[in-house]
Design a protein that fits this description.
Layout (H helix, E strand, L loop, with lengths): L9 H12 L25 H16 L12 H9 L4 E3 L6 E3 L2 E4 L1 H11 L9 H10 L4 H11 L11 H13 L6 E3 L17 H4 L16 H7 L6 H8 L7 E5 L14 E5 L2 H5 L5 H14 L9 H10 L7 H26 L4 H10 L8 E5 L5 E6 L4 H24 L10 H15 L4 H21 L2
Antiparallel strand pairs: 1-2, 3-4, 5-6, 7-8
This protein binds zinc ion.
């Protein structure tokens, strides 16, 4: 109660002033304190508190919420929300504006949402922003709609209802219908606070939420991981499939781990009960190899990214006669090869300040951009059953920009994260070849020439690794 207003966020001071002057609050008591400032905060037992309650009951009658003088639970909150001029409230601590409607995921709902879509949203991300962000990431609208409709047991059709309809219905179900998916940006607190809402918003309510906002929506999503390993495969279809109904309540798992060089492709994804995923992430078992080979026979889609192809071919020939080598030696060979490949990419970025980034993008990422031009439909096995051209406008560009950004960033991150457990093992000949490739890139030699030099180097490394198996 004895809070010093000087420490309040300037945006909140401004907000208080706007509210006090707003005609909606005419007649709602707010005494001036000795220092001339307004007493925003009072107690319910105080004289002002009682006067505020009387005012609010009159207002409820005026709005038609009650007919007599009998109040009902939640009435003050209804009144104060209804009269609020913007429905957005500024946080006293950080100045962030949040919706007064139930627009923010609750802890449990957030867990299932993030599990479902492989995302890392926070409890301070507005449901509308979450929807948009999921679309940006290639999740199809129907899947988001179905997820929210299911979560709120809403009587709506996922295929025909609009985003606005669904969010409004879910918001209402949570605010008035006892559903627990969403919560408000600020809890109601009348008559203690003049506007009827806690001075702290959701953003500053719990220490762990602090500082999160939609500007720093950070994602360690599955699609992000796929971009990190410069994986081949239909990467956009894979992202879309991971967000589809086939993965409801489970997370998507790569049959062949992308960290070992396998492709990011819907045909090589399977549902996996949450929790099991992390332990399996870069393991390889004989049973996995058999699933991979079965999938390739059935779909004709090659399971391995180009940079690990020779080692994979070797494993394919030899795993049956050496099952004991699969989870250890063969897996480690793929892991080592990926570490070497990432080291090659990092060296190019570092040693070719002029052309390095644009060369890598043109040589290895741009060929995948076409995947983003389509929307896909799937059967339960991740096989593509239909493909429709998308309007390749701002959204498609956003996605390829994001793909590029993540892939380049990941090269730097990879070297930091993996420094200790998996270093590159290039020998002096290979290092010399890499060095000359960098000169060639920086001197502006033709793209295909440089690309071929890198392929030759990668194959040399693979062959050396294979000889050790
Ligand atoms: Zn805040």
């Amino acid at each position: 109660m004895a809070q010093d207003k000087k420490q309040w966020h300037p945006k909140f001071l401004n907000y208080m002033e706007r509210i006090i002057k707003d005609p909606s609050y005419r007649g709602l008591p707010i005494p001036k304190k000795a220092d001339g400032s307004y007493a925003w905060i009072v107690t319910a037992q105080s004289k002002t508190g009682q006067q505020r309650i009387d005012w609010c009951i009159r207002k409820a009658r005026e709005l038609g919420l009650i007919t007599g003088y009998e109040t009902y639970p939640g009435m003050y909150a209804d009144v104060m929300l209804q009269i609020h001029p913007t429905k957005w409230k500024v946080c006293q601590i950080c100045g962030k504006e949040m919706s007064l409607y139930y627009h923010y995921p609750s802890a449990n709902f957030l867990k299932s949402l993030n599990r479902k879509f492989g995302t890392d949203f926070s409890g301070c991300d507005h449901i509308s922003d979450i929807w948009d962000e999921l679309i940006h990431r290639g999740v199809c609208e129907g899947d988001i709609a179905a997820f929210l409709i299911h979560a709120g047991s809403l009587n709506l059709n996922a295929r025909t209802s609009s985003k606005e309809e669904i969010i409004a219905a879910l918001e209402y179900a949570c605010r008035k219908g006892g559903r627990k998916c969403l919560g408000p940006g600020a809890m109601s607190n009348f008559p203690d606070r003049y506007d009827g809402f806690h001075t702290y918003n959701r953003c500053c309510r719990a220490a762990q939420d602090k500082g999160r906002s939609k500007e720093n929506l950070k994602s360690y999503t599955k699609d992000r991981r796929a971009y990190e390993y410069w994986s081949d495969g239909n990467i956009h279809a894979a992202n879309q499939f991971m967000g589809s109904r086939f993965f409801h309540g489970t997370s998507a798992d790569h049959i062949g781990p992308i960290s070992l060089g396998f492709v990011h492709d819907p045909r090589y994804l399977q549902p996996m009960p949450g929790g099991d995923n992390s332990s399996k992430r870069d393991r390889l078992q004989t049973a996995d190899i058999e699933r991979i080979l079965e999938t390739e026979r059935r779909t004709g889609v090659y399971p391995m990214s180009w940079q690990s192809k020779l080692i994979w071919e070797f494993i394919r020939e030899n795993y049956a006669s050496h099952p004991d080598k699969v989870p250890t030696l063969y897996r480690d060979a793929l892991k080592q090869n990926m570490a070497d490949y990432m080291f090659i990419l990092l060296t190019i970025l570092k040693k070719c300040p002029e052309n390095g980034t644009s060369f890598l993008v043109s040589a290895f990422l741009e060929p995948n951009y076409d995947y983003f031009r389509y929307s896909y439909q799937f059967n339960a096995k991740g096989e593509i059953t239909a493909r429709t051209a998308r309007h390749y406008t701002a959204r498609g560009q956003y996605e390829t920009e994001r793909y590029k950004r993540i892939a380049i960033e990941a090269v730097y991150d990879y070297s930091e994260k993996n420094n200790r457990n998996c270093r590159n093992d290039l020998n002096s000949t290979e290092l010399a070849a890499l060095s000359s490739i960098c000169s060639s890139i920086e001197s502006g030699a033709p793209l295909n020439e440089n690309k071929q030099l890198i392929k030759d180097l990668v194959e040399t490394i693979e062959e050396r690794i294979i000889r050790s198996l």
